[in-house]
């Protein structure tokens, strides 16, 4: 039987090595692409074929590139690893289908909600499946608080883009003076920003995969594996984590996955205020940067993500022990001249 082929995008990103390794372990041929040349990307050494891609910001050029690669390589499944690509690919499914390609993403409407922090928080708050952070649109704050000079707000506060990613554009505001400066700076962008109280605590990332169970196409299984992020990079990727089991948090995540109609693997982020108190931050409709931690702990999220889109049942979680896991960087030679 001929091997199926997977195209993995943005293979210079944090999750790429784990995803590529899982796909190959499952018997897939793997094609990879990235905006940088192969010599700059260590994971280019791991794929069967590499292509340098244009920026997803140029949607027309990017989709022309993907169509060409899919035709040339006989791609069966496409796995995007970054939000910028997901935003472009979310509306490309019908065109991909004509090429015989399955875009491995949650439903189009689900992606739209998850990429909108305001909409996702409201959906979960209405469903009452988990705690959400009190959130206001900055336009509302401007209309209601400007006359007071923002003196009556309870600081510190966080300002963040509605459609932000990787902590880009996030601001921590400590007092009214700083708030006045930020509101002046964002005056033309208030429709696109949210304001929340800053809750102190660790970020908890939960890798979540939802798919069917064996002999039950109408039934589903949700597997959730949380980790407390002890050290993180500036763009929010965990480098030292504590993987743990908690039935209460996993139950909340499973319920949230069903409310949002997740398919395949995503990651939820919470801020942990205290024991058993988690506030929902966001749902990233893709692999987390630290998805390798879940694989190392004992559950392969990428393999089970692919199974969701190949029409196969996902595996149950099994026994996972609480454990500390850390990431370190390594050096590679990609080319000798």
Describe the structure.
With 337 residues, the chain is of the alpha/beta class. The protein has three domains: 100 residues, Rossmann fold (3-Layer(aba) Sandwich); 148 residues, D-amino Acid Aminotransferase, Chain A, domain 1; 64 residues, 2-Layer Sandwich (Dna Ligase, domain 1), CATH 3.30.1490. It contains eleven helices and 16 strands. A seven-stranded mixed sheet has the order 6-15-14-11-12-13-16, with helices on both faces. Strands 3-2-1-4-5 form a five-stranded parallel sheet, with helices on both faces. It has a four-stranded antiparallel sheet with strand order 7-10-8-9. Strand 14 and strand 15 form a beta hairpin.
């Amino acid at each position: 039987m001929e091997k199926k082929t997977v195209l993995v995008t943005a293979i210079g990103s944090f999750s790429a090595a784990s995803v590529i390794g899982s796909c190959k372990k499952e018997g897939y041929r793997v094609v990879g692409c990235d905006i940088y040349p192969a010599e700059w990307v260590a994971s280019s050494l791991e794929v069967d074929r590499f292509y340098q891609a244009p920026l997803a910001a140029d949607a027309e050029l990017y989709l022309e590139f993907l169509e060409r690669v899919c035709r040339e390589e006989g791609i069966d499944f496409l796995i995007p690893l970054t939000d910028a690509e997901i935003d472009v690919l979310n509306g490309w499914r019908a065109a991909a289908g004509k090429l015989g390609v399955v875009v491995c993403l949650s439903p189009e409407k689900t992606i739209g909600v998850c990429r909108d922090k305001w909409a996702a928080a409201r959906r979960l708050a209405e469903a009452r499946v988990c705690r959400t952070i009190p959130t206001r649109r900055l336009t509302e704050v401007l209309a209601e608080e400007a006359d007071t000079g923002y003196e009556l707000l309870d600081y510190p506060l966080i300002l963040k883009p509605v459609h932000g990613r990787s902590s880009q554009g996030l601001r921590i505001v400590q007092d009214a003076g700083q708030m006045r400066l930020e509101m002046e700076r964002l005056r033309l962008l208030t429709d696109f920003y949210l304001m929340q109280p800053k809750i102190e605590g660790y970020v908890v990332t939960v890798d979540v995969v939802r798919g069917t169970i064996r002999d039950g196409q109408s039934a589903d299984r949700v597997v959730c594996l949380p980790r407390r992020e002890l050290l993180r990079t500036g763009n929010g990727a965990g480098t030292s984590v504590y993987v743990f089991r908690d039935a209460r948090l996993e139950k909340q995540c499973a319920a949230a996955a069903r409310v949002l109609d997740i398919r395949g693997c995503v990651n939820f982020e919470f801020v942990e205020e205290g024991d058993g108190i988690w506030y929902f931050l966001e749902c990233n409709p893709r692999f987390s940067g630290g998805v390798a931690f879940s694989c190392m702990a004992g559950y392969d999220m990428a393999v089970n993500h692919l199974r969701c889109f190949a029409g196969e049942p996902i595996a149950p979680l099994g026994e996972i022990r609480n454990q500390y896991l850390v990431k370190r960087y390594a050096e590679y030679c990609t080319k000798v001249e």
